[in-house]
Amino acid sequence: MEFKQARIFVAVAEELHFGRAAERLHMAQPALSAQIKHLEAELGLKLFERTTRRVSLTRAGEAFLPEAKAAIAQAEAAVAAARAMAGEHDLLKIGGVDSATAGLLPRIVRRFRNRNSAVELKIFELLSAPALHDLANRSLDIGFVRIRPKQDHLASAFVFTEPVVAVLPSDHALAGEKAVAASELGGEPLVIPSRSHRPILFDVIHDYLRGHGVEPNIRQEANERHMIISMVAAGLGISLVPEWVSQFKRDDVVYLPLADGGPSVDVHIAWRQNDPMDVVHEFVRCVLEPD
Amino acid sequence: MEFKQARIFVAVAEELHFGRAAERLHMAQPALSAQIKHLEAELGLKLFERTTRRVSLTRAGEAFLPEAKAAIAQAEAAVAAARAMAGEHDLLKIGGVDSATAGLLPRIVRRFRNRNSAVELKIFELLSAPALHDLANRSLDIGFVRIRPKQDHLASAFVFTEPVVAVLPSDHALAGEKAVAASELGGEPLVIPSRSHRPILFDVIHDYLRGHGVEPNIRQEANERHMIISMVAAGLGISLVPEWVSQFKRDDVVYLPLADGGPSVDVHIAWRQNDPMDVVHEFVRCVLEPD
DNA sequence: AATCAATTATAAATATTATTGATGGCCGTC
DNA sequence: GACGGCCATCAATAATATTTATAATTGATT
After folding, report:
1. What is the pLDDT of residue B291?
2. A100 CA vs C28 C1’ separation (Å)
3. Is the pLDDT of residue B117 over 80?
């Protein structure tokens, strides 16, 4: 018997339903059926009496259930014992762009902690490229990035997209509007990060403005979010930022949506495809599951 | 953690030697190394301190060892509980040609029982073709056959070969010789099984005689071994039989080796390639191991 | 030091096993 | 007796494990 089969058996025994057990284990139902079948074949007996309408434990299955649970518990105790002796505990290193770390993560972290309290999380704020580099290095276990990794040992999945919004000084002529259009920004001096620092955002802003016939007029490059906002507040110019930045409310700036189908930037989660740490995959599921 | 990995870990921990542990588990050493590596990666710690000269447990490994053993024991207890409740016990159905069942098996069975006392063995005497058929049917778990199966879900391995010897009435002119040659058998009346009953032996005898320029002179067909021997004893003719038959000593017949490179017949063991019953594979190993 | 024998690690190829998505067919209910 | 839910089966694919051959390392020995 393999540990995996024991877990599958227990799930089915508790749900008395192959489909729900499969869902609980995040696997497809035929895979689960096959494993139960293998287990029964190895034991040389039936564990479940099943029709398409009813699943019930056989007497052998009933005898097996508590023992199988004990085996699982003992296996987990073994893992815990080794970790305790090594003074190790699960540590998940998470990093990525500010949209994710500042905007999304607090909610996700709360959800994850509820299910998995023994795991320590460390969060780093990183740009996409270094985040992917650190993932490959194993300096990071989970990365939130704007660009999907091309390395084939890194897996990734789309998480969310968010619109880009304009930031203006409160005393700007357009500050009272509900929204602004690219055409209205013509000639406005811009305060944005350098291309080398935020290639995706930089390109997205350029493409958007040029696509609407406006030549970007970059007054000032600034890489730090707060520096950009401060500069806008000081009247050096306006900026275009991902929507989450508008969490930072200040009296002296306003955030306005872009009226004419402004651009969006995406966030993807990336991790090492076959990371042996189970918590990595659990965290990924936690992020991807619908709300 | 998988139980397979736990078993591998325990073997290495007890042997403190990857190569010997691999041998004990009947697997290749790199496979074992890889599994230990995976386990360590999943735990996020080293279980063994190892150089090419010395293997020792880390402190984590020491803590892990008794717990891992307990997990394995608990898993086995679970299996036992299910089997006990189902009133099932391992039953190995073994069948095959008489050379194997009468000649080889007694020794093998003794060896197997020593290691695996809880398994009941049932032994059937069958010809090769029905044995293979029953294997496919699951009416049989292990088959000893003269012809290797072609079905690709049946695995097989060579077990032994034995020479064919001549059986003559004690009062035959050649009965005093140390050995007989094909040429001396020219014209002798033969008592042998029909081709349909023992195709391999039949063909081997024909090929041997014709290969030495002797045309077989079949006096009588008889399928049962004892019938053949009795007929030879009664002076109806001579016969050619696999050597093991000479176990049946009688005053009125003599067994003589064939002088001129007489033919041999082989025995192979066959089983279902991926039989889920562990004891099947253990039995096979028991048969194939040297000695 | 340099060599040697023993032993684990690595690599590439292969074999095995698990998983998935699509679908069939059974069972109980309406 | 048709219907809907649900497990089994199938074929294709993906993932994983295993093997053989070989490299690289270690510690003892010359």
Report:
1. 67
2. 50
3. no
Which residues are CB-neighbours of B258 under 8 A, at least 6 positions away? B163, B164, B165, B166, B179, B180, B181, B182, B208, B240
CB B62 within 8 Å of CB B68: no
Mean model confidence pLDDT for chain B: 92
Distance C3 C1' – B41 CA (angstroms): 36
**Chain-chain contact of A45 with B71 (C-beta, under 8 angstroms):** no
Every domain of chain A and the residues it spans:
3-85, 91-159+267-288, 162-262
CA distance B68 to chain A (A): 5
Measure in Å the smallest separation between the Cα of A237 and chain B Cα atoms.
50
B42/A277 touch (CB, cutoff 8 Å), yes or no: yes
Q: Which residues are B239's β-sheet partners?
A: B167
Task: Tell me which amino acid residue A119 is.
Answer: V
Residue B58: pLDDT over 70: yes
Q: Please identify, in words, the CATH class of the domain defined by A162-262.
A: alpha beta
Please determine whether the domains at B91-159+267-288 and B161-264 fall in the same fold group of CATH: yes
Q: Is B153 exposed, middle or buried (0-12, 13-18, 19+ CB in 10 A)?
A: exposed
Closest partner residue to B71 (CB to CB) among A58, A75, A90 is A75
**Cross-strand pairs, A154:** A272
- The CATH fold of domain B161-264: D-Maltodextrin-Binding Protein; domain 2 (3.40.190)
Residue type (1 letter), A261: G
Mean pLDDT by 10 residues, chain A (291 residues): 97 96 96 97 94 93 95 96 88 92 90 88 92 90 92 89 95 92 90 93 94 92 91 94 92 93 93 91 89 67
Spell out which chain A residues touch chain B, with contact meaning CB-CB distance below 8 angstroms: 1-4, 6, 38, 41-45, 47, 58-64, 67-68, 70-71, 74-75, 77-79, 81-86, 88, 90, 276-278
CB contact under 8 A, A82 and B64: yes
| Sequence-distant (≥ 6) Cβ neighbours of residue A56 within 8 angstroms | A16, A48, A49, A50
Topology of domain A3-85, per CATH? Answer: Arc Repressor Mutant, subunit A (1.10.10)
pTM, full prediction? 0.84
Q: How many CA atoms lie within 13 A of B134 on its CB side?
A: 20
Confidence of residue B6 (pLDDT cuts 50, 70, 90): very high
Residues of chain A in contact with residue B60, where contact means CB-CB under 8 angstroms, are: 82-83, 85-86, 88
Please name which of A225, A270, A222 lies closest in space to residue A250, comparing C-alpha atoms.
A225
CA B120 → CA B112, B113, B149, distances in Å? Answer: 11, 9, 26
Q: Which residues contact B48 (CB under 8 A, 6 or more apart)?
A: B12, B13, B36, B55, B56, B57, B58, B61
Are residues A63 and B82, on separate chains, in Cβ contact within 8 Å? Answer: yes
Domain B91-159+267-288 sits in CATH at: 3.40.190.10
CA-nearest of B10, B276, B275, B278 to B118 is B278
Give residue-wise pLDDT tens across range A264-282. Answer: 999 999 999 889 899 999 9
Q: Which residues of A touch B3 (CB under 8 A)?
A: 1-3, 75
Task: State residue A216's pLDDT score.
Answer: 92
